[in-house]
Amino acid sequence: MKHIHVFNKWRGMSVKKTTNILLPLALSALMVGSTVATVPAYAQIEAKESQTVAPQQEISMKLEQTGSIYDVRKRLKVKIGPSNRQPTGIYKNMNDVIEIYVDPSTDQSVMPQYIISPIVLTNYSEGNKPGITLRKGRNVITDGTGIIHLINESEPTQNPVTVTISGGQELPSFILGKHTDDDWEMIKRSHPNAPGFELVSKHVIITGGSKSISLVQSPNELMRAHDKAIEEQYRVAGLDSSNVIHQPAPMKHHMRETSESGYWMYAFFNHTAYASDAMDRILNSDTFQRNGWGPWHEVGHTNQMDVMDWSGLGEVTNNIYSLSVQRYFGNNSRLEEDQIYDKVFDYLGQENNDFNKIDDVFVKLAMFWQLDLAYGNNFYPSLHKAYRELTDQPGSDAVKQQRFIRLASQTANRNLTPFFEKWGLMVTEETKQLLASLPDLDKKIWEYRDNMDDVALAPPTGLQATDIQSNRVTFQWNPSEGDIIGYDIYRNGSWRARVFSTEFTDTNVEADTEYRYTVKSIDVKGNESEDSNEIVVKTKQESSSSYEQWNRDKIYNKGDRVQYEGFDYEAKYWTQGNTPGSSDNWKLLSEVILPWNSNKSYEGGDKVTYNGVVYMAKWWTKGEIPDKSSVWEQQ
């Protein structure tokens, strides 16, 4: 038997539904990290004589090389992980004949696979269907009805595979960075009878049915919000480029609509799913950012580390990520809103407590969250890294608990024995001896809560605009003193974003329009300062540049000039798909100083901004941080 994490809309938590899996192959598919002997399944190579391939659509795409989803789960030490699916935007009707041509010139030894599944799931297993392997050359598919996704679990090679899909029905598809909100409206109008749609961003795929498409009003803002939520969860999980074992998986999170009865939301392998009545939680930008606990919670399950959890924490530790996203979007803590701290302090006031006998998952959550409140937003990233760097794996609950007490204490650089004993976790004599060399705990951190009466935070000062264009506004400010974790940006009185530097660029603006901005400081407990000084800016009119807009799919030769995001660029040499401003292939012609980009090379004399300060390169450089390297000179 296997458990699925299902979200209960009344209690705001997942409950476990036990499902008997009868087929051995299906059971094997549920075993994360297990070795499964499988018989290769291949796409049909030739159509039957009575069938012909009459393609309605044809698309070509170079697939991402993601590596194995099982290897990703093992490396990140997570239970579920992201999805290995890649979107195509193609739907196969019952009588459609689909041809997928796999470019034979690829040097991949692992061939891509395809999956066809209902656009609105009817069973959780449909979101985790095994792929059917494609062969080099022509593959003809006659069976199945549903949306087509691809899998490419090859490790990186010199020549990633390109596939061309012919046939089927094109779905309304929005790709962040490629399409605008206006494009989306036109795409919807041109596909009035489509059975569903897909939205795609850097970290997320959303697949929904035709009845939900009307909920998507501003996909640009929506998908940016989804990416920010994923990136905040990745930050909490300590996923970054510091070491290969800490790198985020090169895969997306697949959020799908489901009509299966008994489910409001759930998390399972290769997808999270949402009932049709719950789709507004992931399709309305404001709802997702203000009332998105359900989606934050389910995606949190995909980041849970098995080595960190012991029995009874399945619906607890995933909400460390939920609370972090809630704070990131500027919301009050759920532990405050639902008066959980009243229950917490009642429990802590008792004698002979036993943490493992607490029934309320939110009371349990408070213990983990107090560590974040006490030791800042770098506590859990560091703790996750410590767990991933373990060479031995704790097995029993007792061993896992002592391991958590030890690693948490080492991460905080405090002997946390009094804290855990107050919460009713037994600290063994062996663990106490290991922690004896750490500094003593000097604060009653079990009394911490999100909304504490602290000294008023100093608001940011010196807010000023540094770059105003027709399609963006960049401004900076002086850092505030104190235990500050970030800054909230307000535009025209409404919350706009949370950032962790002293500079922000607003790209969601209209040309020739006036905007008013203020900034507030945020500390580790989520407290917010008063407003900074207000600035009023007016964006420029639309650019009168004579150069064409940059096109991702077009080939440019040396000397070709384009406009991108209001700036003029000239190609240094042949290029295709390399974004101006982020690639060495382009030279900036416009007289403007852009923010430093770690992926871009700079020559002597080039100027950049970093954390609100202008720097000039002394000689050629790439990846060297302006305020940390002698190659940069502050201007």
TrEMBL record:
GO cellular component: extracellular region
GO molecular function, one term: carbohydrate binding
SMART domains with a match to the protein in the record: ChtBD3, FN3, M60-like
The entry's keywords: Carbohydrate metabolism, Hydrolase, Polysaccharide degradation, Signal
SUPFAM superfamilies (UniProt xref): Carbohydrate binding domain, Fibronectin type III
Domain Fibronectin type-III: 459-542
Sequence ranges assigned to domain Peptidase M60 in this UniProt record: 83-376
Gene Ontology biological-process entries: polysaccharide catabolic process
PROSITE patterns named in the record: FN3, PEPTIDASE_M60
Annotated InterPro entries: CBM5/12, CBM_sf_5/12, FN3_dom, FN3_sf, Ig-like_fold, Pep_M60_3, Peptidase_M60_dom, TCAF
Signal peptide location: 1-37
Protein name (record): S-layer protein
